[in-house]
Amino acid sequence: xxxxxxxxxxxxxxxxxxxxxxxxxxxxxxxxxxxxxxxxxxxxxxxxxxxxxxxxxxxxxxxxxxxxxxxxxxxxxxxxxxxxxxxxxxxxxx
Length: 94
Fold this sequence. Notes:
Pfam families: PilZ
CATH topology: Thrombin, subunit H
Shape: globular
Low-confidence stretches: none
Strand content: over 45%
Number of helices: 0
CATH class: Mainly Beta
Largest sheet: 6 strands, antiparallel, barrel
Domain PilZ: 8-92
Strand order of the largest sheet: 2-3-4-7-6-5
Organism: Candidatus Magnetominusculus xianensis
InterPro entries: PilZ_domain (IPR009875)
Mean pLDDT: 88
CATH architecture: Beta Barrel
Number of strands: 7
CATH superfamily: predicted glycosyltransferase like domains
Protein name: PilZ domain-containing protein
């Protein structure tokens, strides 16, 4: 997984969870799914099947309990191809 630890101000912890998301511009469209690989107070890392556009904002639905998600917004900081798909690092917008 790509790491930009030198640029982070918050520690991240491993998280392997299915994350639903959609772009803010396409809020009326169906949600897409990614898998998280880490999360912290400042952001989240995702593995998905497409490159994301740096600077765009996503609405994420992060699981917080059985059948319960928390909607949060995050800015795409980077997105690169990797073995088996793509990875992206997002910064939460608070």
